[in-house]
Amino acid sequence: MARYTFRLGLIQLKKNKTVKIATGSFILLVLWLLLYFKSNSVHHNVPAVAHYLRTQSVVYVSGLGNYEPKQETLRIGPGEGGKPHRLSSGKENEAGQAMSEYGMNMACSDEISLDRTIPDLRLEECKHWKYPTDLPKTSVIIVFHNEGWSSLLRTVHSVINRTPPELLEEILLVDDFSNKENLGSQLEDYIERFKGKVRLIRNKEREGLIRTRSRGASSATGEVILFLDAHCEVGYNWLPPLLAPIYRDRTTMTVPVIDGIDHNTWEYRTVYEHGHHFRGIFEWGMLYKESELPPAEKKKRKHESEPYKSPTHAGGLFAIDRKYFLEIGGYDPGLLIWGGENFELSFKIWQCGGSIEWVPCSRVGHVYRGFMPYNFGKLADKVKGPLIINNYKRVIEVWFDDKFKEFFYTREPLARYLDVGNISEQLALKDRLKCKSFEWFMENVAYDVYHKFPQLPPNVHWGELKNIAENKCFDTFGNAAPTVIGLGLCHGHGNNQLFRLNAKGQLGHGERCVEADRQSVKLVFCRLGTVDGPWEYNAESRSLLNTDHGKCLTVHPQTKLLMLMRCDSINTFQQWAFKETVPK
Ligand code: LR7
Ligand code: MN
């Protein structure tokens, strides 16, 4: 493949056109000046005149691989421009029904055009990049299970509308055994209008999103495969910037910046502060996080809009050379349904010689659901514990070195007891591809993880935390932090009652920490960069001392609320016992 370098093409103007514009459009110029000073998206590196000509699409750099589209025509209607849409009154019931069926307000989505416009949130620079004219053709793969009609098809329409046709090999829809009426023959009929560009294949049983994507990858015919969730809207000129790094190096996987689409109003908005760049990292319990680009990475960049390396990604939206994906084994087929596959692929790519780049000039909107409307089906019954933790364990058992595995088990003590099945093929692949250690990955790629989440001291106690007087257990009741902690009947199943105390006094539940003031005891976000805490357990007196306050964890005898009180070793309301809840 030919080598090329990225280059900001600061427009080659044809003189005669410039003259015409300058003389003929004084009013436009004034209007533009107004817009220019209002807009905060204008980047100072780009000469104003270039910006002006660009947005008016007067000068079109053709043949140079800029791929910048002509401006979309202005459209008026519900949700146009990515504006929030309020449902017509009288449809509240429909909306409520849709929310519980899909985790998103389909009644609202149904009122918005499948071809709606969205705001162009890219950095101004992005309009001036030039890309090779012979970028690889792409199969856009969308897997779906019981998704809403209009949000699924808006994904398809946005790809058709905003992708240079010569780069789009196909859109491949892979149905993961949906049972909704309209996703049957009605969908087959509908896609006929795309004259073969959109292809549909179906699973014969529920496979989950991970295996369904693998199936899509095998069936796809494009040189590059690009995955999207089934409720996305792609942005202006989104594809070429994702393909260019792959063209340069086929072991690069690329990820767009993901904007948010509100699941209730369908408002399209960025979730990132302007001018700030984030990359994907993780906590030791394998919780996915995003963190601002570390200074060392910032220094490597010349342009704000340039792609940058990231340790991992959210999972849903990315592009990769198809053959490379298959060479590194695709997704581990032992991962079930949902979760952890983003880490598996990321660790594998990095440790086995590839890289991941996030691409600021490519933006894609994604509907974040209110809640997950589907269950994990029959496959999940095979698994003893929570399916997602099971997947994580499979991933870390293959890719982590022993030292790092301990960090995971410290955060997820029950995971030690889960059976992840046979991983010998994954280990053999790791050997065959001569992949590097996790330590290497941490030192060279994901070093910012250490800054936020230092190496974890081991747990000294974990399990349910029972109060002796009340005979009840610490319980989050499934509420997300920040939330007050209460006492529930001890059930011995871990989950909301699984707490842990580490050697440095941090008391926590999953990725969260227990903190207390005089009035209440709460589950909160742990203080970043710390792994210690204010708790001291005395196994003899069974007291839990909070060293910040010099007081003991107590159940108030009357209100039964948790609080801190002066320590009193014979008070059973202050006595606590940890009991490991090992699954049978
Ligand atoms: O059994 C299933 N079969 C499927 O085909 C379950 C789901 N699916 C489909 C589903 O219809 C959808 O198109 O798989 C896709 C993803 O499922 P979602 O949208 O219900 O999940 P999500 O958006 O919460 O999922 C995020 O994490 C997943 C972990 O396995 C995947 O990696 C998703 O792709 C990922 N989504 C994103 O990264 C989008 C960006 C937002 C974030 C974070
Ligand atoms: Mn999704």
Automatic annotation (TrEMBL):
Pfam families: Glycos_transf_2, Ricin_B_lectin. One of its GO terms (biological process) is protein O-linked glycosylation. Pathway: Protein modification; protein glycosylation. It comes from the Eukaryota. The keyword Mitochondrion does not apply. Keywords: Disulfide bond, Glycoprotein, Glycosyltransferase, Golgi apparatus, Lectin, Manganese, Membrane, Metal-binding, Signal-anchor, Transferase, Transmembrane, Transmembrane helix. CDD domains: beta-trefoil_Ricin_GALNT7, pp-GalNAc-T. The keyword Acetylation does not apply. The chain crosses the membrane at residues 21-37. PROSITE patterns: RICIN_B_LECTIN (PS50231). It is found in: Golgi apparatus membrane. Residues 462-579 form the Ricin B lectin domain. Gene3D superfamilies: 2.80.10.50, Spore Coat Polysaccharide Biosynthesis Protein SpsA, Chain A. Its cofactor is Mn(2+). InterPro entries: GalNAc-T (IPR045885), Glyco_trans_2-like (IPR001173), Nucleotide-diphossugar_trans (IPR029044), Ricin_B-like_lectins (IPR035992), Ricin_B_lectin (IPR000772). Its main location: Golgi. One of its GO terms (cellular component) is Golgi membrane. It is a single-pass type II membrane protein. Belongs to the glycosyltransferase 2 family. GalNAc-T subfamily. This is Polypeptide N-acetylgalactosaminyltransferase. It comes from Parthenolecanium corni. The lineage of its organism: Eukaryota, Metazoa, Ecdysozoa, Arthropoda, Hexapoda.
